[in-house]
Amino acid sequence: MSSAQNERGLPVGEVVVVSLCSAALFATGNSLQHLAASSLPDKHLPVLQVMRLLLRRWHWLAGAFIAAAAFGTHVLALSVGRVGVVQPLLLSGVVMAILVRPLLGREWPKAADVASASVTVLGLVLYVVSGAIADQQPRDPLASEHTMVLGVVATALVAFTYARRPRSGAAFVLAATAGLLMGTGAMLVKSVLESSDQGTLFFLDWRVGGVLALGLAGTALNQKAYHLGTMTTTMPALNVASVVIGGVAGAMVFGEFPRVDAMALVGQGAGVLVMSVGLVMCARRQSAVDAQKIGTRKTPARDAGAEEQSGSVAQDSVEMTARDLRR
């Protein structure tokens, strides 16, 4: 078999093109959704209210349609290519989104935002490539889909309780929680597809309802994260959580264990370290944006107070002058 083809006999070049198209659609769709969500004025809106308002905005609906197309091309890429080739290319969509989102707002991307997202994506790529599946073992019945779903839902409830109101780190927590839910939904999709090959009726499978519920909940939390935070914070958090939970699900549910040789462990450790540095950089960018917004809100108030004080002094001066003239 030629080195220019994958194990299914398809040209690697075509797999790369489909993967990059999926990444570009992913970046564009999510950028449009972030543009709509971040423009909502009241940051104290509950999640359901945010979704109700977004469903009335054409650019959010356009972003959702494009994101659905990105999901379709993602599935196509995975069906014709190796995960080790497709996933790292799809992660480039994070950097693309950081570049596209400012352009939609008629601004140029900031170098610090691009740098922090790029560092995070580099760590993700190292982690994914180094953790390539070495072998597949029979499933552990104790670590079933039920265990994964219940654990993720419980974690999501705790995270949502913390981040449902605007506070430091809320956007990051909500985006990461959305990534956990969506990653778990992807695990159920794979499980459903495997069951369908064995003759299980699609509409009688409880996992179909689970996919829909997890997908809707993940989408809602992600839009609330977009409402509160910058793309630089939310996109990396979403993707890191999704990749991590995907690896956990692969091992616990599907028996897909990564390589454990020395080079693989070094690569995975380096990937985690670089990811951590990138996420810290993203969090600092969010803190800087929040501080700037607070300063912007306080400045007009100080100016108004100064004008009021100045007007009061001027009025006192006029009254004193009038008294002097009467004397």
Descriptive notes:
This protein is mostly helical and 327 residues long. 78% of the residues lie in helices and 2% in strands. The protein is built from 11 helices and 2 strands. It has helices at residues 12-38, 47-54, 58-80, 83-90, 92-104, 111-130, 145-163, 170-197, 206-228, 231-252, 262-326, and strands at 133-136, 256-258. It has a two-stranded antiparallel ribbon with strand order 1-2. The longest helix has 65 residues, at 262-326. The protein is globular. It starts with 11 loop residues before the first helix and ends with a helix. The model is unreliable at 299-318 (pLDDT under 50).
What distinguishing features does this structure have?
mainly alpha, 2 strands, two-stranded antiparallel ribbon, 327 residues, 11 helices
Largest sheet: 2 strands, antiparallel
- The ordered string of helix (H) and strand (E) elements is HHHHHHEHHHHEH
Structural class: mainly alpha
**Order of strands across the biggest sheet?**
1-2
Radius of gyration: 25 Å
Helix fraction, binned, reads: over 70%
The percentage of residues in β strands lies in under 5%
Total number of beta strands: 2
Average pLDDT across residues?
Answer: 76
Helical segment count: 11
Envelope shape: globular
Distance between the termini: 109 Å
Low-pLDDT runs:
299-318
